[in-house]
Design brief:
By secondary structure, the chain is of the alpha+beta class. It has twelve helices and 15 strands. The strands form five sheets. It has a four-stranded mixed β-sheet with strand order 1-11-10-7, sandwiched between helices. Strands 3-2-6 form a three-stranded parallel β-sheet, covered by helices on one side. A three-stranded antiparallel β-sheet has the order 9-8-12, with no helix packed on it. The two termini are 25 Å apart.
C-alpha cells in the first residue's frame, strides 16, 4: 500500500524525484515588487508595501485593522498582552499546535492550560472548554479564577489546525459568559472561512502567519487582525518599539518591541496575496484528489469541518496505529516524499510538562496516528 501512496503523490507532482511538504510559489510579480522596494531603499519597517500589505489583509479577512509583524509568534505575543494577559495569569489553549502558541503565552509570563481537541476539527474542543470553566473555575461576575491555582484565567487561544477552522463560534460563546477574551491563532488559516467569516475574526483579535511554508509567505511575517480601533492603535505602537510618532527625536513611552514587518518582506507578501484565491482553489482541488485516493486504500483523510471552507494548508491522513504511522513516515521519506507526524503535544515538551491539562484523550490519539503529506500548490 505504501508504494501505491508514493506513486500517487509522485504522479500528482509530475514525477518530481524529491517532493517537499510545502514549498512557496513565486513568479515575476513578487520579483517586480521586491526589486521596486530595493530601488526605493526603503527596505526596513517603513514603506509603501507595509501599508499596502495591511490594506490587502483587511480586504481579504474583512477585519477593520491589520498590523503587520515580523512573524506570527510576535503577533500572538502582542495580541495576548493587549488582551490583558499578565504574569502568573492562565490562558486556555490546545496541546496540538506549533510550539509558538504556548511560547507566546509564556513570553507574557502566563501559564498555558492545555485542553483537549475535537477529532473532527483538530482544534480546541468547545465541550472541554465548557467543562473546565464550569468544574475547575469560579466566576465573580467580572473575572474567572482557577479554583486549584487561584490564578486568573484571562484569555483563550484556539488554533485553526492545518487551516481547518475549529468550532470558534461555540468557544467564543462559552468564553464570553466567563468574560474571557478570545485571541484566535489563525497562523495557518489565511483564506479559510467558517460560517461565512474569515478565520481569526471571531474573537477580540486574531493572528496570521506568513512563514516560508505557509499558503502565503513573506519569507517570514505575521499580522494582528482586529475590529477594535483602540487595540489596533496600541498594537502598531507596541510593535514599533513604542516610539512616539512625529518630530526628530527618539522618544519611547513604554516597553515596546521591534516587531514591525520590513517593507521588503511586505513587498513579497503583496505579490503573494494577489494569488491567494488561486492558491486556495488549487489546494482544495489537491485535497479532493487526495480524498478520493485515500478512500480507495481505506485510509481516513482529514476533511474540512462542517460549516467551513478550509484552505487545506497541510493535508493529513490518519494511520491505524503508532507503529503503522512510523512505518508510513519512514517509507515515504526514504523515497523522497516528505511527510511528517503531527507536532509533539505541547504538554509533553520539557518546559510545559507541569502545565495543567484535562484528559487529552483525542489529542493523544491524533498525535499517535496523524501524518501530514505533501501539500504544495500544484497545477
Amino acid at each position: 500500500m505504501y508504494n501505491k501512496v508514493i506513486a500517487f503523490i509522485r504522479e500528482l507532482y509530475h514525477g518530481k524525484e524529491f517532493i517537499p511538504l510545502h514549498e512557496p510559489v513565486f513568479d515575476e510579480t513578487e520579483i517586480d515588487y521586491v526589486n521596486r522596494t530595493i530601488q526605493s531603499t526603503f527596505v526596513s519597517s517603513v514603506g509603501e508595501y507595509v501599508d499596502l500589505f495591511e490594506k490587502k489583509l483587511c480586504q481579504i479577512t474583512g477585519s477593520k485593522y491589520a498590523i503587520a509583524t515580523v512573524n506570527g509568534t510576535a503577533a500572538l505575543h502582542v495580541a495576548l498582552k493587549l488582551a490583558g494577559v499578565e504574569p502568573d495569569d492562565e490562558v486556555i489553549t490546545q496541546p496540538l499546535s506549533f510550539v509558538a502558541t504556548a511560547n507566546a503565552i509564556r513570553y507574557c509570563g502566563a501559564h498555558p492550560v492545555f485542553l483537549d481537541i475535537d477529532i473532527k476539527t483538530l482544534g480546541l474542543s468547545a465541550n472541554c472548554v465548557e467543562k473546565f470553566l464550569s468544574e475547575n473555575c469560579r466566576y465573580d461576575g467580572n473575572t474567572t479564577f482557577n479554583r486549584h491555582t487561584n490564578r486568573r484565567v484571562v484569555a483563550c487561544v484556539p488554533m485553526h489546525t492545518f487551516g481547518h477552522p475549529c468550532r470558534i463560534d461555540d468557544i467564543a460563546e462559552i468564553c464570553n459568559r466567563y468574560h474571557i477574551p478570545i485571541v484566535e491563532d489563525a497562523a495557518e488559516a489565511i483564506g479559510s472561512i467558517y460560517q461565512g467569516k474569515h478565520a481569526g475574526t471571531f474573537g477580540k483579535c486574531g493572528i496570521l502567519s506568513f512563514n516560508g511554508n505557509k499558503t502565503i509567505t513573506c519569507g517570514g511575517g505575521g499580522a494582528v487582525i482586529t475590529n477594535d480601533k483602540t487595540l489596533a492603535i496600541a498594537a502598531k505602537h507596541l510593535t514599533t518599539t513604542a516610539k512616539v510618532p512625529g518630530g526628530f527625536e527618539y522618544v519611547h513611552d513604554t516597553l515596546g518591541f521591534n516587531y514591525r514587518l520590513p517593507n521588503i518582506n511586505a513587498a513579497l507578501g503583496c505579490g503573494q496575496l494577489e494569488k491567494l484565491n488561486v492558491f486556495v482553489r488549487y489546494k482544495r482541488r489537491l485535497s479532493e484528489k487526495y480524498e478520493r485516493f485515500f478512500s480507495s486504500v481505506d485510509l481516513p483523510f482529514v476533511k474540512e469541518p462542517r460549516d467551513a471552507v478550509s484552505n487545506y494548508w497541510l493535508n493529513a491522513v490518519i494511520l491505524p496505529t503508532l507503529n503503522e504511522r512510523n512505518r508510513f513516515l519512514k517509507k515515504t521519506n526514504d523515497n523522497g516524499v516528505t511527510t511528517r507526524p503531527a507536532w509533539r503535544l505541547l504538554n509533553k515538551l520539557p518546559m510545559y510538562q507541569t502545565c495543567e491539562t484535562d484528559s487529552l484523550v483525542n489529542a493523544n490519539w491524533i498525535a499517535d496516528r496523524l501524518v501530514n503529506i505533501p501539500s504544495s500548490v500544484v497545477t
